[in-house]
TrEMBL record:
Belongs to the thioredoxin family. One of its GO terms (cellular component) is cytosol. The record marks 31-32 as: Contributes to redox potential value. Keywords: Disulfide bond, Electron transport, Redox-active center, Transport. PROSITE patterns: THIOREDOXIN_1 (PS00194), THIOREDOXIN_2 (PS51352). CDD domains: TRX_family (cd02947). It comes from Isoptericola sediminis. The active site is at residues 30, 33. This is Thioredoxin. Gene3D superfamilies: Glutaredoxin. The gene is trxA. Residues 1-105 form the Thioredoxin domain. The lineage of its organism: Bacteria, Bacillati, Actinomycetota, Actinomycetes, Micrococcales. Disulfide bonds join 30-33.
Length: 125
């Protein structure tokens, strides 16, 4: 599966409609973004069960701002609509594979329990 171009209007639906979504926040003027692009594209071919979205931060400024993107490239991973990974910087292929495998291996019941516990702790303070 090739990478999918995400926009301000398609970003949220892509996260909702797919089990695992990686999002590469990039810009055409960014050298590290251009270096990461073929690594990301190869990952999309290796993991057809994972949506590999690309969001051009120059063209899609609303989502980039809402996501708090302050450096590019930034990679975010969503599983079942929950952001489970967020890191700036271009990853080498082995590190990207580790991220994909780790996201696939997550126990989402445990993740939701941790989120609920954190929210309950914040409400008590």
């Amino acid at each position: 599966m090739a990478t999918v171009e995400l926009t301000d209007s398609t970003f949220e639906q892509a996260i909702k409609d797919n089990d695992i979504v990686l999002v590469d926040f990039w810009a055409s003027w960014c050298g590290p973004c251009r270096q990461f692009a073929p690594v990301y594209e190869a990952s999309s071919e290796e993991h057809p069960d994972v949506v590999h979205g690309k969001l051009d931060t120059e063209a899609q400024q609303q989502i980039a701002a809402a996501a708090g993107i302050s450096a590019i490239p930034t990679l975010m991973a969503f599983r079942e609509g929950i952001m489970v990974f967020n890191q700036a910087g271009a990853l080498p292929a082995p590190a990207l594979k580790q991220v994909v495998d780790a996201v696939k291996d997550l126990d989402m019941d445990d993740v939701r329990a941790q989120i609920a516990a954190a929210e309950n702790g914040q409400q008590q303070n």
